[in-house]
Task: inverse folding
């Protein structure tokens, strides 16, 4: 299945994500690992490489400070695992700019699996077929 997303929207999303990742990398360099870096070749499964934290996945939720809930993506628009359940990162960092949550990825998965959630949410851009990624809040 081919999923088409508006190129302009996708470019803005990538630019924003990279900006957030850069902020987090700067923070990691100052506080935890002076040798952390972006992968030489971009990879889908994580965002930052760190000897001390392991590979790091960074996700931003700009709506959390207003809603009081984090939305955690678990399935892409094609129905495949994504976000928290697809990353190979050892450390998961969730950012809403009021707080930055740094947690071991497997511990976070285990917590998520055992919780009751307020609701399921659609996330991200719609495909041409009107599908969106799914998350929990």
Result:
């Amino acid at each position: 299945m081919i999923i088409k997303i508006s190129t302009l929207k996708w470019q803005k999303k990538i630019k924003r994500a990279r900006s957030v990742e850069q902020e987090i990398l700067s923070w990691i360099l100052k506080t935890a690992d002076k040798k952390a870096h972006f992968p030489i070749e971009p990879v889908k499964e994580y965002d930052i490489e760190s000897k001390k934290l392991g590979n790091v996945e960074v996700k931003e939720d700009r709506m959390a400070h207003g809603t009081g809930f984090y939305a955690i993506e678990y399935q892409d628009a094609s129905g495949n695992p994504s976000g928290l359940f697809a990353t190979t990162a050892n450390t998961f960092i969730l950012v809403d700019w009021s707080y930055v949550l740094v947690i071991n990825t497997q511990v976070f998965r285990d917590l998520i699996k055992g919780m009751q959630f307020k609701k399921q949410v659609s996330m991200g851009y719609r495909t041409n077929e009107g599908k969106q990624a799914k998350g929990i809040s």
Remarks:
- Confidence is low (pLDDT under 50) at residues 1-5.
- The helical segments are 7-31, 64-67, 105-113.
- Strands lie at 56-60, 72-75, 91-95, 100-104, 120-123, 133-136.
